[in-house]
Amino acid sequence: MTSSHEQDGHLPRVAAIVLAGGSGTRFGGGANKVYLPLAGEHLITWSLRAMAALPGLVRLVLVIRDEDRAMARALLDAEPAPVAVDLVDGGATRHESEYHALRTLAPAVAAGAVEVVVIHDGARPLPSPGLVRAVVDTAARQGGAVPGIPAGDLVEVADDATVRRRLGTDHVRVQTPQAFAAGPLLAAYDAAAADGFTGTDTSACVQRYSQASVRWVPGEVDNIKVTLPADLAQAEAIIRRRSDRPD
Asked: In sequence order, what DSSP letters do the residues of 32-82 get, joined into one string?
């Protein structure tokens, strides 16, 4: 797939942030799930390489828990990404972790060396190259891009389990990677920090504190998030299926 920026000769300069600072308590086992093995490597390695393959990438940041730093460094030494990876300590929330990474990128954003920032959940190891490029291209043109898949026919349920109303079929289940114009994104998070605001996801903060237009990009069924042990088995199955496809 050739983006409009590739056609006009300009690739946006991109920084990618991969989030691996969560506790993963729902998975069980005590360890951070992103360091579990997946198809001969580690889950987080798949996520890092998916971002590292992006044309125009100039920075790659991995957000970690402080207690995982030695493990993350050992993994990067054993399974190096194609580009250098900056390690940044995360915060108490996803929003705070994103802000820590964005502040690390702030000088490059101010200098114009980073034009688009991609933020990806490290527990989603299998976004296709086409999806990653699509969100970057859309963000470069429109200001922001969020992938998602149709959520089906939804209903709103009250606390007593009463169905209040049908929400219809015009809703999507949001995925990552999400991409945003770098300047408005950083400014939005600076404004949120001044207000003490914590967004439910990246786009919530951008929409509250900027005029950037956030567009929906069709997501992928295979772009699963590993939350439970069964999800890890599903990811293995997807990788096997992809490897069996003819070139």
From this structure: -GGGSEETTEEHHHHHHHHHHTSTTEEEEEEEE-GGGHHHHHHHHHHS--S
What is the tens place of the pLDDT at every residue in 92-124? Answer: 999 999 999 999 999 999 999 999 999 999 999
HSE-CB at 187 with a 13 A cutoff on CA atoms is 13
Chain-centroid distance, C-alpha 99: 14
Length of the chain: 247
Q: Say which DSSP state 94 is in.
A: H
Q: Name the residue with tokens 């920075």.
A: 59
Partners of 75 in beta bridges: none
| Residues paired with 37 in a beta bridge | 42
Task: Say what the pTM is.
Answer: 0.89
Q: Helix or strand or coil: residue 182?
A: helix
Q: Within 10 A of 20 (CB to CB), how many other CB atoms are there?
A: 26
- CA gap 198, 21 in Å, rounded: 16
Mean local confidence (pLDDT), 15-27: 78
pLDDT band at 8; cut points 50, 70, 90: low
pLDDT of residue 156: 76
